[in-house]
Amino acid sequence: MQIVKEGYLFVLIPLILGLLLIIPNLGKVAYFVGILCILASLFCLYFFRDPKIEIAQGEDLILSPCNGTVLEVSENETEKVVRVFLSVFDVHLQRSPIAGKVISVEHKPGKFLKAMEPRAHIVNEQNIIAIENENGNYLVKQIAGVLARRCISWVKPGDILKAGDKIGVIKFSSQVDLHMPKNVEVKVKQGDKVVSGITVFANTSK
Prior knowledge:
This protein is of the alpha+beta class.
């Protein structure tokens, strides 16, 4: 199974510790702790998985930047926003929703409220990745949660992306928001399960 590079230490450290506690026959307590370490390693292997997928194709498509469950679809005078909750069982790497150029990557320090909290997307620690193409500006927000203490971006200003390219990862449960131009037609609703690079969030209007 392929995993993201940030997951290697989370997999290897508890695995090695578990084996060191089990193999020498140090007693029942050590054996039990060793088993727990190996189970933790297997969970991290699952959590940091990077499955191979077929990216959805289409010039007018705006793809989901993440795996998870849609929390909210909203709009205001200037944009439409889809917010997605990522549980610890979802794939946690993010992908570019569009083909375009990275304009900026901003780290915003903040709190670590539960990802489901209404104010989490405002006050929590987050990375804001701005991507631009001929249809407008798009913001992918990687938002930390109560367990997700670090959002990692793999892109930098000036990078040219294809739709579905990998752009970052969040460690453990979290939230991802996608801010889109006002004129897009949103295709998802609250409660929908979405898959990064596959689920169509919206279509651009012509």
